[in-house]
Amino acid sequence: MTACRNCGGQTRLSHNATIMGKHPVDYVVCTCCQYLQVVDPHWLEQAYAESINLSDTGLVSRNINLSRSVLISLFAVHGVGKIRNSRYLDYGGGYGLFVRLMRDIGLDFYWHDPFSENLFSRGFERSGGQYDGFVAFEVLEHLEFPGRFFEEVFQQTDLLICSTELYGDSPPPTAEWDYYALSHGQHIGFFNSSTLRFIASKYQLDHASDGRGFHIFSRDRLPQCLILLVKALRFMRIDRMISRAFTSKTLSDHAMMVELESQAKVK
């Protein structure tokens, strides 16, 4: 049986399915870290002909909701003072909508995505150096080798806020879990709570999770009951109050981009 692409452990056959209506594939689960993965995802170039799936009708609302959760999470972990002097990276940022939302609030966010065009946050692409936090939403299930991702991330930051839908104690049948995303073929690896604990232990991280789709990893100790705190503050719409502590970058970014456009025309 194939080795686990997350930890190198032994795997066992879970089930099989057909990807994109034409690629028969086996799903195997690691006996060590419980990472559920497809065997030999050879169709990825075809799957990424379009970076954003036609079926992703929740893209805008998801980014708006996540912007609220991230603002509250950063407030709980870093506090307003540190946030003002920090820069953050959206890894797998898609069209750049999330980065634009966070910069509109006033946070210094940047974009990175090798598979997508940056439409909404041009001029704020990833640069070198360290970051005070990464976010990676709907990224983990796309990774062929998750371990390499975590190694890269935690060479440049001490904090990762991410989302991916967890499966339960055992892999669900394909007919009962839409997250397999058989129609577009981009989801090739899946996590459960045991996988998250394994990753946290392997890379010496503290972690918090809502047990469904929202997860935080940190080299520093996270506040107790962090997820419950985030949920409570979000329910109370405290994000509106937190956002008042920052000055929106909408106008300053506009002025910066106008200057860049002027310089480009002169050249």
List descriptors.
alpha/beta; methyltransferase; Rossmann fold; 9 helices; 267 residues; transferase; 6-stranded mixed β-sheet; SAM-dependent_MTases_sf; single chain; 4-stranded antiparallel β-sheet
Give a short synopsis of this structure.
The protein is of the alpha/beta class and 267 residues long. It is 34% helix and 19% strand. The chain is globular.
How are the secondary structure elements laid out?
Elements: E1 11-19, E2 23-30, E3 36-38, H1 44-47, H2 59-77, H3 79-84, E4 87-91, H4 97-105, E5 108-112, E6 133-137, H5 146-156, E7 159-163, E8 189-190, H6 193-202, E9 206-209, E10 214-218, H7 226-235, H8 238-243, H9 250-266
Parallel strand pairs: 4-5, 4-6, 6-7
Antiparallel strand pairs: 1-2, 2-3, 3-8, 7-10, 9-10
InterPro entries: SAM-dependent_MTases_sf
Organism: Seongchinamella unica
Keywords: Methyltransferase, Transferase
How are the strands of the biggest sheet laid out side by side?
5-4-6-7-10-9
Shape field: globular
CATH structural architecture: 3-Layer(aba) Sandwich
Mean pLDDT level: 94
CATH topological fold name: Rossmann fold
- Number of separate domains: 1
What would you note in describing this structure?
This is Methyltransferase domain-containing protein. Pfam families: Methyltransf_23 (PF13489). The protein is an alpha/beta fold. The protein has one domain: Rossmann fold (3-Layer(aba) Sandwich). It is built from nine helices and ten strands. It has a six-stranded mixed β-sheet with strand order 5-4-6-7-10-9, with helices on both faces. It has a four-stranded antiparallel β-sheet with strand order 1-2-3-8, with no helix packed on it. The longest helix is centred in the first third of the chain and has 19 residues. The chain is globular. The N and C termini lie far apart (58 Å). The model has no long low-confidence stretch (mean pLDDT 94).
